Amino acid sequence: MSLYRARTTIEQWRIFQAVVHCNGYAQAAKELNKSQSSLNHAVAKLQAQLGVQLLEVKGRKAQLTAAGEVMLRRSQFLTQQIEDLEQLAHSLERGWEPTLTIAVEHFHPKDKIYQALKLFHPQSRGTRVTIIDTVISATAEAITDASADLVITPELPLGVLGTCLCHTRLVLVAHRQHPLARQSNISYDDLTQHLQLVVRDNGKHPDNRHGWLKAEQRWTLSNFNEAIELLLQGMGFAWLPEHQVKEHLSSGILINLKVQRGATRQFTSYLVAPKPQHQGPAGALLEQLIVDQYTSSAS
């Protein structure tokens, strides 16, 4: 079986992409620290080898042809694969990861994560683990920016795969002496007249489309513990994870508000490895241990 020998090189495709990205040969030459003539030669040779015109110069700008648009998309995928392959080799050369970061959506229960970490520790070879609480857009950013090695999220960005771990319920609660506690069939208009406690979206670009945020009075807090403390003082109402207020609901000091609809909200938590192709042995082990905790409890 004879192996296919490519007529083009990765460097030629990289130059082609740079010319497109920089809107011309002169700008691309500065970006790549090469002469403009060498870039012209590389792209001309690439087109000749392919037998397809990729660019046409109009004025001082190089514009893509219809064929060039198709080839650009495919070549970007190719160069990204090469980059990923080289980074994978670097990861294998480094071996066991010295650090791991886990980003967890703030309302997800962490008990099984802690159980997985307990099992991971004897095998960790000194790997330092950081757990960060993320809220709404920060969780998505941890995936898209690959700023964490493992992410537990209620939403999967387009094109991202994740392992389903569990379902979490958020309940609408207030103190038993709060005015809303004495009402039944509470409407959304009723809620808008009272103080709402919300947890701050800690992403770089907060997304206010999530959650119910129509109350005229709203206090923004750093975490659910702060919200619970204020609720126990008889202040406001809030959406809270059911597992975090279970004891307070059982004792009766906090109650579920009787709203017309939507008294509970359920989310599915997924475990995501943002860059699976770059994952090292420590990350793979911890990911499997976390999945095992949820799998064993479900069986």
UniProtKB/TrEMBL annotation:
Protein keywords: DNA-binding, Transcription, Transcription regulation
Residue span(s) of domain HTH lysR-type: 8-65
Pfam families, per the entry: HTH_1 (PF00126), LysR_substrate (PF03466)
Domain of life: Bacteria
InterPro entries found in the cross-reference section: LysR_HTH_N, LysR_subst-bd, WH-like_DNA-bd_sf, WH_DNA-bd_sf
Family stated for the protein in its record: Belongs to the LysR transcriptional regulatory family.
Protein name: LysR family transcriptional regulator
Organism: Celerinatantimonas yamalensis
Lineage of the organism: Bacteria, Pseudomonadati, Pseudomonadota, Gammaproteobacteria, Celerinatantimonadaceae
